[in-house]
Design brief:
The chain is built from nine helices and twelve strands. The protein is globular.
Length: 314
């Protein structure tokens, strides 16, 4: 139904940081669990993203590019989730390489032996200056880095950074002034009351909300494969990443095309997946849905911006 929550996971890890599963195995598990939208957010690495996105696409699920950056904020470590960025962005890749080298991430990464010195995804181009040449990345610069790469930045598990809500409120206000886009308010290890308080905090500061479980390995209580995201927060998140300037104008026409009904022979949504244009900014990211016609027995590809808030693909 239109108001039912949607099962997502925008915070999970693979063997390319400290997870136990390959990107393909993780994608298979997420899809089998009924997760409809996900992001692989390895620590300071995006090496697994192409494999993860391709594996999810084959299973009819959708994905965003993602990463969990290790940053410094007022003298303490803070984790920042980046979404929807260009995975080929040279500055981002150079910075990730710097962060991994200084932190010796390979020591506890199963995929460490796969890594090579240099860029996270070297393309043979001209040298690019890292935003963290000394291996330390201030959170304000991390936010700007993600945004320069075409993405948006969210504070990961906020109560891990600061457990007292009043003090966290002040920190979030400071981060908002640095350009923060959202909070990971719906985080599996947090209680329902904590999640509700964080959603309200996000609203107070006019921030987006994301949802994730911090999944690393199977069988760990409190860290499931998926988590329910309320539709109100999902709509705002979806609109931020999967919209275009023509979204509102096209919504009604798209719903008519995909509403279904034997008497009209309309196209009915079957599944959706995410594609990221690697050389374009965030506004060019789009989802396509495969719509099936019961009359013709054929599928047709329709951009999501033409489907509006059709419940069958949300």
């Amino acid at each position: 139904m239109m108001n039912d929550p949607i099962l997502v996971n925008f915070h999970c890890h693979s063997i390319f940081s400290d997870g136990e599963q390959t990107p393909e195995a993780l994608a298979a598990g997420l899809a089998a669990a009924g997760v409809r939208y996900a992001a692989l957010t390895d620590h300071d690495s995006i090496e697994g993203l192409p494999r993860f996105q391709e594996a999810l696409k084959k299973r009819g699920a959708a994905s965003l590019s993602g990463v969990e950056l290790t940053t410094q904020f007022n003298g303490r470590e803070a984790h920042l989730l980046g979404y929807g960025f260009d995975i080929e962005n040279a500055e981002l890749n150079a910075t990730l390489s710097s962060l991994r080298q200084i932190r010796s991430l390979d020591v506890h990464s199963i995929a460490g032996s796969m890594r090579k010195a240099g860029s996270s995804r070297p393309n043979g181009g001209a040298p690019v200056v890292s935003a963290a040449p000394q291996g330390q990345l201030e959170i304000g610069e991390a936010i700007a880095l993600i945004q320069r790469a075409g993405g948006r930045a969210f504070l990961a598990h906020p109560l891990v950074l600061e457990a007292e809500l009043e003090e966290l409120d002040a920190l979030v206000g400071e981060l908002k002034s640095k350009g923060l886009d959202g909070l990971e308010a719906i985080y599996a290890p947090f209680s329902e009351s904590q999640r509700a308080a964080l959603v309200q905090l996000a609203k107070k500061h006019d921030l987006l909300v994301c949802a994730g479980t911090d999944f690393h390995l199977s069988g760990v209580q409190g860290y499931p494969l998926g988590i329910e995201m309320p539709r109100a927060e999902w709509f705002q998140f979806r609109q931020a990443f999967f919209s275009s300037v023509n979204f509102s104008a096209d919504a009604e026409r798209g719903q008519k095309r995909c509403r279904g009904g034997a008497e009209t022979g309309a196209w009915q949504p079957a599944r959706a997946w995410y594609h990221s244009r690697q050389t374009a900014p965030l506004s060019a990211a789009f989802i396509r849905a495969a719509c099936f016609s019961a009359d013709t027995g054929r599928h047709r590809i329709i951009p999501l911006r033409h489907l509006g808030h059709h419940p069958a693909i949300l």
